[in-house]
Amino acid sequence: MSRFFSDKYRDLTPYTPGEQPRDNQYIKLNTNESPFPPSEKAMTAAEAKLGKLMLYSDTQCTDLVAALSETYGVGKDQVICVNGSDEILNFAFMAFCDKDHGAAFPDITYGFYPVFAALNQVPYTEIPLRDDLTIDVDDYIGLGKTVFIANPNAPTGIALPLSDIERILKGNPDNVVVVDEAYVDFGGESAVSLLPEYENLLVTMTFSKSRSLAGARLGFGLGSPELIRDLNTIRFSTNPYNVNFMSEAAGVGALSDPEYMKRNCEYTKEVRAYVTERLRALGFEVPDSSANFVFAKHPGLDGEQYYLELKKRGILIRHFSVPRIRDCNRITIGLREDMDALLAATEEILAEAGK
Ligand code: PMP
């Protein structure tokens, strides 16, 4: 830390992203990326924008906002486009929280929430999940805080039904409820249908997972025109050019190819069912996942050891050094052959451990 670093950030512990090795020697199942390339339509559209890069990008994201409004059946004034959904999560902490208006989220959830809270000096409450890693909705009624719920949750993969999301919205009418639907296309129930009824609902989504565009850094939010206006105030006060031309075009291209996304999600769901069953047969505890990953724990295997043994064998999964889940690992669902390699390596590791 330099002597110039602001006091307000002295205690900040930044988010630790999953490893991104520069070589190709790993089977990468650690950051929930899609194993499929972007849609041809996304690639062609992005390429066509190369010659426009001398210009600043469109601050209104006109084409993408129009395509998203059409895809999700909401008004254009209900859409905001961002540089990865991480950006809108940060915007939400900036826009809807402060030292007198704290945030609340589960103790086991997306690791960026507490980081954004700390970055923005927002006090936060971490509400413990039940022992089976599910959310007890009763804990979220009348909180008087901005609520952040990943649905499906990460890293557990467990989804809440829409009726529970609605109870949380009803139970916090004077606070914004942010429903982070980064993984919704893999089996969750989207809260978008609740938008007409709840002015306190903000749904965030991403092109990073089901639409295979993690490297494009493209996300979006859907909410009431007033919430979107607030978020735009923050966006225009930080970086109005947050979405570049190529990513915007890639997003429009991806939305024009819904069949491709659907096919890829169906594939992932099938492989997820297969991996879940095989891991359970090997003695792992694996909650039913509605996302493109599973969260697995073996009673006879130290979680970090399992991660390290797989890494030695060229397979990367995600281990979190968080006490409550240190025996668990999050495993992205990749291609069937990559998952077979994971399962074979797992059998070997279990045999070596005498399990
Ligand atoms: N929400 C959740 C729950 C996530 O796991 C992620 C990805 N790590 C994000 C949001 C952010 O994704 P992106 O910034 O790539 O849109």
Give a short overview.
The chain is α/β, with parallel strands linked by helices and 355 residues long. The protein contains ten helices and twelve strands.
Describe the structure.
This protein starts with 26 loop residues before the first strand and ends with a helix. It has 355 residues and is an alpha/beta fold. 48% of the residues are buried. The chain contains ten helices and twelve strands. Helix 2 (62-72) packs parallel to helix 7, helix 3 (85-96) crosses helix 4 (112-119) and helix 8 (258-281) runs parallel beside helix 10. It folds into two domains: 7-30 and 259-352, Aspartate Aminotransferase, domain 1; 40-256, Aspartate Aminotransferase, domain 2. Strand 11 and strand 12 form a beta hairpin. It has a seven-stranded mixed beta sheet with strand order 2-8-7-6-5-3-4, sandwiched between helices. It has helices spanning 40-47, 62-72, 85-96, 112-119, 162-171, 225-238, 245-255, 258-281, 303-312, 336-352; strands at 27-28, 79-82, 103-106, 124-127, 146-150, 177-180, 201-206, 219-223, 293-297, 315-316, 318-319, 328-332.
Name a few traits of the molecule.
single chain, 355 residues, alpha/beta, Aspartate Aminotransferase, domain 1, Aspartate Aminotransferase, domain 2, 2 domains, seven-stranded mixed β-sheet, 10 helices, 12 strands, globular, binds 4'-deoxy-4'-aminopyridoxal-5'-phosphate
